Amino acid sequence: MPTLFAKIIAGELPATIVFRDARVTAFLDIRPAAPVHILVVPNKTIATVNDIADEDEALIGHMVLVARDLAKQQGIADSGYRLIVNCNAHGGQEVYHLHLHLLGGRPLGPLVQRA
Ligand code: AMP
After folding, report:
1. What is the domain partition of the chain in residue ranges?
2. Fewest Cβ atoms nearer than 10 Å: which of 19, 29, 45, 72?
3. Ligand 1 nearest atom to the CA of residue 96, by list position
4. What distance in Å separates the CA atoms of residue 88 and residue 9, rounded to the nearest whole number?
5. Is the CB of 86 under 6 A from ligand 1?
6. 99 is catalytic
């Protein structure tokens, strides 16, 4: 079964795509948690961080560089931003297709609540 994000990448579901190349697609999060909330997604389906293969090392680096460039384009590079990858249940992962959240445009507060 293709993932929700695989369907977006294939053009079978709508999304506001802000960047695409042979390896990744980036689109606006449908429920933004900040003024800038973009998801950078590998075009090939990798379910979680646990499923990243050694040969995906360059792809993962590329995702970070795309996020860096998008942060600059969105005007949040200097004010700052956060990159997040959630993994599995305790990480709060909802969509099992690896993605990097790019969040910014306001002070984001602490990363996690301290217990
Ligand atoms: P995560 O909890 O890390 O798996 O994040 C999944 C993200 O995907 C959430 O921030 C959702 O708002 C976002 N999302 C879910 N469905 C869509 C969609 N159809 N288009 C864009 N973003 C989506």
Report:
1. 4-104
2. 72
3. 4
4. 22
5. yes
6. yes
Q: Which CATH number fits domain 4-104: 3.40.50.150, 3.40.50.1860, 3.30.499.10, 3.30.428.10?
A: 3.30.428.10
pLDDT one-digit tens code per residue, 44-101: 999 999 999 999 999 999 999 999 999 999 999 999 999 999 999 999 999 999 999 9
pTM: 0.97
Confirm or reject: Cβ of 95 under 6 Å from ligand 1: yes
User: Predicted confidence band at 16 (pLDDT cuts at 50, 70, 90)?
Assistant: very high
Among 96, 8, 26, 112, CA closest to 64: 26
Residue 62: its pLDDT value, please? 98
Token duo for residue 60: 């993962």
Q: Is 80 in the pocket of ligand 1 (CB under 6 A)?
A: no
User: For residue 68, which amino acid is it?
Assistant: R
